[in-house]
Amino acid sequence: MEGDEARIIGELATSLGAGAQYLRSVAASPPADKGAYLLLLRLDAPLDLRLLHSEIRLCSGYYVYAGNAYGSGGIGARLRRHLWRDKRLHRHIDRLTGIADAIHAFAVPDGHECVIVAQLLATGRFDVPVPGFGSSDCRHCEAHLLRLRPRAF
Hints:
Layout: H1 2-16, E1 21-23, E2 35-43, E3 47-51, E4 54-58, E5 61-69, H2 74-83, H3 94-97, E6 102-109, H4 113-122, E7 126-127, E8 145-148
């Protein structure tokens, strides 16, 4: 899977554009910029989750999650929270970041989560696995969690 992940990371960097930055280590140099971020998550096995009143199943594979970080601490603070495994579950994505088999992060200074979602969906390589996941406060997007279609890259 390492070769696949490296290829996916490269393709995501290209899709996100010149302003995006792949973060090899958030702990070493967390960006304080405000903007958006993208998480690439790998699930090695199917995952059953309970969200409010519904149960969902995510198949094994790669997922991306786009979020905004315009609050205090910017992108770095938000990514540190997402990468911290032992945390109080507050957002939908917290249920995945705590158990994903691998997580990679991109910073998109001055970016916006909805623009990222639209860009990735426009490639035809992604779909929405769970409508409403991560976008309960968004009026534009069906979800902020996307699934990379198998063999899309």
